[in-house]
Design goal:
The protein has 604 residues and is α/β, with parallel strands linked by helices. The protein has 18 helices and 26 strands.
Length: 604
């Protein structure tokens, strides 16, 4: 078990503090320190790699019995990147060259830097990664590699990216691999393209969904490809240590959209554009995530759901809490709530209970640079450092004394699943400019299951082998379904599984084309035909299930249904033809088709 803390984001902390800080970290019960190895810092001059500060820190850690996790920060690029690699700038959705700038919370280096689809940028980045691994793979203190921090690639781009010629070529190659030829693409998309040059990515939400959804899917695939490339580059040189990456948030929480806390911090993101955690876990030695519960306003249930997203994606591979909040956040002149020892220890032990093999807190000292200055330091000056460090030392002792017991813990496999549908996120973003409704729906289903004490796993739509052994699958706002996924869900029902579906499940296909009700999976599988949206006549409906009365909140619309013979209407709503349903439930985790199908092996 690696129990550690982030220490060095060069040039801070300054060298005169290192010896004392490393000793205090050890005394606080932690056994590992994390160091950021910045490309911009190490290779400030092209071709000249300087590692003297890392050499000293790693030696100091080893002398105190501390392990080291090295985070290769290749996404913070050298200031010379565009000078040395001509034409490497990203291009935004308006055709403008992106002007890179110093990273907002990092003292030295450019973001977003050069586009990694440019072969010259990738070549220079590879040289950096190889130099770092070659230098430190023999270090006795080295515990592992965090190859990509929060999967950042477009920070400070100031627009949707990337639309440069290299990325457009990669997008078209991706389409060729999916459809085989231009004729195949035309047939699938119902288009009449005359040349691949006519095939362009979607630009902005509400434009034609087909290109928008395809480009979002490509960006997800592209990030996963880049993470796999980093992994292979590093693993080829160090086969002994684990190589992982970690997102800022698990994929189901990545909604995209234009976000900003003020006009200077506006970020443009498509949903899941930092990659799909399930595919990272396919390729890498493990997967992690950042977690700042107090900063993000998460309660213990939200945090548990976050951990479930991570461990569901990992499917038994090692999981890391790669950045866990060390103390009160700091942003500009906002006063954030402190982090007390009790809640911090609850996060730690929730993570261990979820199966985390590495927990790294952010960070040891209060930050001193930029908008995060004055915050996050576990040993910082917020008045609660002493109690946090004492509690951490006690947990460190427990992890040592009960390590064998903890390593042997394996929970029983859950029989309940919740479907995560990236295609529905892409559709939601295309419609509204963010996938917030899709995210809130899956999050709330998961919160409800957790609060009821029902073990569950999140199942990603392209990893449906995870349905084996499950009995119930919830489909939260799954408005887009491919034929392949529908067929697997049909098989799940025919094998005895139960689907819990909402209104307009699979109303769109993966191209963003609307399906008429009789063409949807629900109609083909059960004979239930939806009759269109109707305005709400109230804010709740009553259902009777096995004699129990439930009052369920409504949101957005109701859906009258035409029921097949043998189906039982459970709703007491007065609506068309005896059926009622709920669509797009937003924050309410409630059933959307209040009916029971006639007995069969499985059902809705």
């Amino acid at each position: 078990m690696n129990l550690g803390i982030q220490y060095y984001r060069p040039p801070f902390p300054l060298p005169h503090r290192w010896e004392d800080d490393l000793s205090r970290i050890r005394d606080a019960g932690m056994n590992t320190v994390q160091l950021w190895v910045l490309w911009s810092w190490v290779e400030a001059t092209p071709g000249e790699f300087r590692f003297e500060d890392y050499d000293r820190l790693i030696d100091g850690a080893e002398q105190r019995g501390l392990g080291v996790v090295l985070s290769t920060i290749a996404e913070v690029q050298p200031l010379w990147i565009h000078r040395e690699v001509a034409g490497s700038e990203m291009i935004d959705h308006m055709g403008r060259r992106v002007v890179s700038s110093q990273r907002l919370e990092c003292h030295f280096g450019l973001t977003p830097g050069g586009c990694t689809d440019h072969p010259g940028v990738q070549e220079r980045m590879q040289q950096f990664l190889e130099a770092v691994v070659t230098r430190y793979r023999g270090a006795n203190a080295l515990r592992g590699w965090d190859a990509w921090n929060e999967l950042r690639w477009n920070v400070q781009a100031d627009g949707y990216v990337c639309y440069c010629g290299h990325t457009l070529a990669a997008f078209r190659d991706w389409l060729k691999s999916r459809y085989g030829s231009l004729d195949g693409l035309n047939e699938a998309w119902l288009r009449r393209y005359a040349s691949w040059e006519d095939v362009t990515p979607g630009k902005l939400p509400t434009r034609p969904f087909t290109e928008l959804m395809a480009f979002q899917h490509f960006l997800t695939w592209r990030a996963n490809r880049h993470g796999r490339w980093r992994y292979k580059t590093m693993k080829a040189l160090d086969r002994e240590r684990p190589v992982t990456v970690h997102p800022a948030s698990p994929s189901p929480l990545e909604t995209g959209g234009i976000t900003a806390t003020n006009e200077f911090l506006r970020e443009y993101n498509q949903p899941i554009n930092r990659g799909n955690d399930w595919f990272y876990a396919d390729d890498l030695d493990g997967i992690g995530c950042s977690s700042f519960p107090k900063w993000g306003g998460e309660d213990s249930v939200d945090f548990a759901v976050r951990l479930n997203f991570m461990t569901s994606a990992a499917r038994g591979k090692p999981t890391w809490l790669s950045e866990l909040q060390g103390a009160a956040a700091a942003t500009e002149n906002i006063v954030h709530q402190p982090v007390r020892a009790g809640e911090q220890q609850r996060w730690l032990w929730q993570g261990i209970a979820a199966g985390a093999t590495t927990v790294l807190f952010w960070c040891w000292r209060d930050e001193v640079f930029g908008r995060e200055a004055g915050g996050f330091g576990m040993a910082g000056s917020d008045g609660f450092a002493a109690e946090r460090l004492a509690a951490m030392a006690r947990s460190g002792e427990l992890l040592v004394s009960h390590g064998e017991l903890l390593r042997g813990f394996r929970p029983d496999p859950p029989r309940v699943g919740v479907l995560f549908s990236p295609q529905s996120y892409y559709l939601n973003w295309s419609q509204e400019g963010h996938a917030g409704l899709a995210m809130q729906s899956i999050r709330t289903y998961c919160r409800s299951l957790y609060r009821q004490g029902i073990p569950f796993r999140v199942v990603e739509e392209e990893h449906l082998e995870e349905l084996n052994g499950m009995r119930v699958l919830f489909l939260p706002r799954v408005n887009a379904l491919s034929a392949k996924v529908e067929e697997r869900l049909r098989a799940f029902v025919e094998q005895g599984g139960v689907l819990f579906a909402e209104s307009e499940t699979g109303a769109f296909d993966e191209r963003g084309i609307w399906r008429y009700p009789e063409e949807r999976m629900l109609a083909r599988l059960t004979g239930i035909r939806e009759l269109g949206r109707r305005p709400l006549s109230g804010r709740e409906m009553e259902c009777r299930i096995d004699g129990d009365a439930l009052r369920l909140p409504l949101a957005q619309w109701t859906t009258p249904m035409e029921l097949p013979e043998g189906a039982e209407n459970l709703s007491l709503c007065d609506d068309h033809r005896g059926g009622a349903g709920l669509g797009g439930n937003g924050k309410q985790a409630v059933p959307c088709h209040a009916l029971r199908r006639a007995p069969r092996p499985g059902g809705f």
